[in-house]
Amino acid sequence: MISIKTIRGLLLIAAVVFSTALVAMTHYAVSGVVERAVREEAMHGADTFAEMTSQSMFEVMVACAPVVPVAIIAALLMVMYIRRRIDRAIRGFAHDIRSVNKLSDLRQLAQTSLDFGFTEFSPIADEVRQLTERVRSIAVDKEMLEFEIRLLEKFILTSDVVKDWREYVNRLLIDIDDVMPAYALFSIFKIGDDIFDLEVFWRYAPSSESRRLFEETVKESLSRNPYFTGGYAVNIEHNVADGSRQIPDLMHGDLEVQTKSLLLDAPKIGGIVGIGMQAQASPEATRWLVVESILSTLLNVVGSVKAIDKYTKDLEYYATRDPLTNLYNQRVFWELLDSEAVRSGRHGHKFGLAVLDADNFKSVNDTYGHSFGDVLLQEVATTIRGAMREDDLLARYGGDEFVAILPETGLTGTIEATRRMMDAVAGLSIETPDGARVGSSLSIGMAVYPDHAVETRDLFLFADSMMYRAKAEGKGRVAIPTEHDVVEVFRSLSEKSILILAAVEARGVIPYYQPIIDPRTGKVEALEVLARIRLEDGTMLVADAFVGIAEKMGLMHKLDYILMERALEAAVAANYQGLLFLNMSPRALVLNDFIPETRRIAGSSGFEPSRIVFEITERETIKNMVLLERFINTLRAEGFRLAIDDFGSGFSSFHYVKRFPIDFLKIDGDFILGMGHNDRDRALVRSIVALSRELGIRTVAEYVEDGEVLAGVIGQSIDLAQGYHIRRPTASIAEALDVRLH
């Protein structure tokens, strides 16, 4: 590269040379003229000298004339050289600028040696390079933005995506690879306590060594995250988007440097806790920003897809299975029972039906907790299944109750089979959390098709009644039916079934009201609604006498709807402004039409949902806490309130308080009655009241049977109270509101 100083020096030298030559020529010419002039003056005089001087000056000018064009031409050539050199540099720089069409071209421009032809312009070239680097650090590639937009457009969940989410991720990896070369994507899901699934999606088929290195790298990354400390297990599955090509063998260092990941401190939707990408080369920093944006979105999308996929599969599975024991559920049991009745009727076979109840399960559940109770039920189910023939069918009907279908089996075979099950469970022994051991026993009722009934529902109700007889006779036994039993059981069942059907048909459920008061002032703040069915002789059948049969008949939710509708109509007619407590069947709570139906009933009556309190009782008919939580949250969103009935009777009640938005705790009546003579009951009640006050939940004392109990309720600072001492249930709201404490 030449400098302008050099050009200027050359021009100065040329000017000096030109001036020297011009002076020399002038000197030579003038010397000659002077010499001749002196001679002429000497010879001819002064006039002749003047003429000779003029002539000589002309000769000097003529002699110097050839030098001037040479100097001008030299100067022009130098100017042209300088201009051409600068123009060439400017054209080259302009070409480099116009060639910048994407972010990667800026790096090429920064690495290009910019030559403006003269060293004086070098600082400009340095400034241009620095500007290019600054632009690279803040610019976002248009291609990457377009790619991100196109990719985000694919983040729409469809049935096809849910159907095969792994193929969906494979396609996303191919799209990413087109813009930013990538070896693999990976996602991490939490599927249990300290158990994780690692899904790896390879662009091309990896070698076994690359797989091993990749797994090690991800595990090392997990071990450095506090969320994964304390030990964990990882199930790994590899997926290949295009198996027609092999990726080069990966090095451990490459994986460490080039893997970008997002690890979360807690699982997101679908249990996803991390997602990452392994790129082939280190790209622009701004590209990583776009990639991390995509990964963040992909984290939620993949988590959602996995959640929907799992939810769909769970729906398919648990549509037929009980989630705790993996036995057939109640719905499938009825389908299998109907199918077996049709098959046996066609071929003239008999089959046995057994209803089995795990004795004393509630006391074990209350003593050792909900979790241990689940373990006991699982062990009982496994033991029963192990004592059955391979083609026998076992289902969990609900809570601690199981049902078994014994194909092609008469009464004798059914007796043998049920005794075998009973003996197997009697030998069961499980260690409790405190180191003790507990066992179990079965109370079993049976029926044989077609000896005891032809209709499947009648057959089941007969076996169920025999099971209750076995429990009444001392538990841990099989009730074997006789001909007398058939007449007696069906007469009782028929009477109650007819009453229930008639009550549904004629909307004959009668609401009774029991006041719930402030024990300090006697003011009625709420009414609990209780169900009654009127008999032909005018007497009332209380709920305990028909709820069990109504639930087995699948009609309890209809009775609940009728009760709610009639109670709200009466409350509006009486201009009642307080709260109404309603006991709803647990099975009704999880029905798909429960929310729409309660919304319709409340809306049509004009009674505000915020004054309706649904009571949840810890019953064994609801084990799926997630499902129950969803319905309860929906109820709260609709404006309804919630209460836990019989609080403290089991550990599950505390789970309810922890997980659900509860407004009232109705303390179990046995604790209330025991406060007067039992220190433990007083301590438990005091603890429940303190817990409720901390959580902003109001307490209700049940079973206030006399003045002494009421005084204890006041002494324990319980908010509300109800019981026979205050007022017995009555069909009149006006009477229920007329409370006079004595």
TrEMBL record:
PROSITE patterns: EAL, GGDEF
All copies of domain EAL, residue ranges: 493-742
Domain GGDEF: 349-483
Family annotation (Pfam families): EAL (PF00563), GGDEF (PF00990)
Record has Transmembrane as a keyword: yes
Keyword Membrane attributed: yes
Transmembrane intervals: 60-82
Keyword tags: Membrane, Transmembrane, Transmembrane helix
Gene3D superfamilies associated with the record: 3.30.70.270, EAL domain
UniProt protein name: EAL domain-containing protein
